[in-house]
Design a protein that fits this description.
This protein has helices at residues 15-38, 84-97, 120-124, 149-157, 196-204, 236-245, 247-250, 270-279, 296-305, 312-324, 353-368, 373-383, 395-401, 432-450, and strands at residues 161-167, 188-194, 217-218, 221-225, 256-260, 264-266, 285-288, 346-350, 390-393, 402-404. By secondary structure, the chain is of the alpha/beta class. The strands form 2 sheets. It has an 8-stranded mixed sheet, sandwiched between helices. The protein has a two-stranded antiparallel sheet with strand order 6-10. A hairpin with a 2-residue loop joins strand 3 (217-218) and strand 4.
């Protein structure tokens, strides 16, 4: 009598192998979906280009620790990149053919403060500026900004595109941009401004030399050490916004600039970003929208609530000043701008009359009140003449072209209890009309979403 033995295939005789195959079959489709769904936001050039060599830090520096997760998992508004070679040629042509007829005249001399600290009405008197006007605009540098002569000469020689960043008070780490094309370092200057405290830490970690007279380089960055004098402001943040908003004055011959907060690492070639976000839309400035807030008042309240600026009374005075002088809440009448609040960790500029004027006027507001540039942004944008054209692109784009990190961890200084702000702090003031209109806009937007 014959027996027939039925056995399971060899593949299924190992439980571990079965589980592995099952895991592969379930995760592979998901991996493919994620890869292809994100491709709309990777902003890749149509043709690959060779990238420049990378810089290595000592392992103890840990420049890649504490990366922040992104708020959005995908991107609903992609920005296509043109071919790298074509972008390179076009931007070079724009830099060669730019005219000098759009240069502003700046107030010079010595002042009580770095930018003059004028009254609100005096500052507003500079908001209207026409071609050919001989009025000198206050734009900082009425006191010393301690840059060595060799660095100053190098900054003047940068006559094309410049990428600027700053670390004051050892608040962040020097991070190298990624994804640079093979010809980018020959066409783009990279300058990082640091103070004595930051320099001391970099020397101790053997990243920078403390020898006098040397050109200080960390990877692609030329390091400008602010030595030899007292910095203009007691606040490290205010000293940091000098290169942030006055790049057109520090680099007077540059045609385009990019500001990059030191907490942010760039992952896309700056020429591609400038071309896609600035040149193609024919904008004067490009900056990401804030991911959450739309109205300036919302940002003011968040600033106080999260202790980004502890003096609530000064915030109230700032908002009352702006309301009295014409600031309105966001509404559809401000389109194509969909918000009054930017995220200023990344700013791209085409240097010209409108962009330079906007930067000067904004900086004067920062000196008058505080370094929170998001609070003065819409006030200057909406009221200045000539009107500036700003490309306020989606925040998801910013997330996909950068990696954001936490600031260096510092022991928190003891603070007095901070009064939490709300719209009630402005009630009965000159901003009452602003609040009523803001509330109505919010109701209208909610109704539109409901439909």
């Amino acid at each position: 009598m014959a027996f027939v033995y039925v056995t399971s295939p060899l593949l299924f005789q190992s439980k571990l192998l079965c589980l592995s195959v099952l895991y592969l079959l379930t995760t592979l489709p998901l991996a493919l979906y994620v890869s292809f769904s994100q491709s709309t936001c990777l902003f890749q050039s149509p043709t690959p280009f060779p990238t420049s060599r990378r810089f290595s830090y000592p392992p103890s520096y840990a420049e890649h620790k504490y990366a922040l997760p992104t708020a959005h998992s995908d991107c609903s508004s992609s920005v296509p990149f043109s071919d790298y070679g074509k972008v390179l040629d076009e931007i070079r042509d724009l830099c060669r053919n730019s005219t000098s007829s759009l240069v502003l005249g700046y107030l010079e001399g010595k002042g009580d403060t770095f930018s003059g600290n004028f009254s609100a009405q005096k500052r507003k008197s500079f908001f209207h500026h026409r071609h050919g006007d001989q009025v000198a605009i206050p734009c900082g540098f009425l006191q010393e900004f301690p840059v060595k002569e060799s660095d100053r000469l190098a900054m003047e020689k940068c006559d094309g595109v410049v990428v600027v960043s700053a670390i004051i008070g050892d608040h962040d780490k020097v991070r190298q941009p990624r994804g640079l094309g093979s010809h980018t370092l020959a066409s783009v200057c990279f300058f990082m401004f640091i103070d004595h405290a930051t320099h001391k830490v970099l020397v101790a970690r053997n990243i920078l030399s403390d020898k006098e007279g040397e050109v200080n380089m960390i990877g692609v960055w030329r390091i400008v050490i602010l030595h030899g004098g007292r910095l203009p402001y007691d606040s490290p943040a205010m000293n940091g916004v000098i290169p942030k908003h006055l790049a057109h004055r520090l680099f007077p011959n540059s045609k385009f600039s990019m500001w990059l907060d030191a907490k942010v690492q760039l992952t896309v070639d700056p020429l591609l970003l400038i071309h896609s976000l600035l040149v193609l839309p024919d904008a004067d400035t490009a900056i990401p929208k804030h991911p959450f807030n739309i109205h300036t008042m919302e940002e003011v309240i968040a600033t106080a609530r999260w202790k980004k600026w502890a003096d609530v009374e000064s915030l109230r005075v700032q908002m009352e000043t702006y309301c009295e002088n014409g600031l309105k809440p966001w509404s559809t009448s401000k389109l194509p701008y969909k918000t009054d609040v930017p995220d200023s960790a990344l700013i791209l500029r085409r240097h010209g009359l409108r962009s330079n004027l906007f930067s000067c006027l904004l900086f004067n507001e920062l000196e008058a009140f505080n370094h929170r540039d998001q609070l003065a942004f819409a006030y200057v944008r909406d009221l200045m003449v000539p009107k500036i054209k700003i490309n306020m692109f989606e925040f998801e784009v910013f997330e996909h072209v950068t990696v954001e990190y936490r600031h260096n961890l510092k022991p928190e200084a003891s603070q007095q209890p901070v009064k939490m702000a709300s719209s009630r702090d402005i009630k009965g003031s000159s901003c009452e009309d602003y609040l009523l209109k803001m509330s109505q806009t919010t109701v209208d937007m909610s109704a539109a979403v409901g439909h």
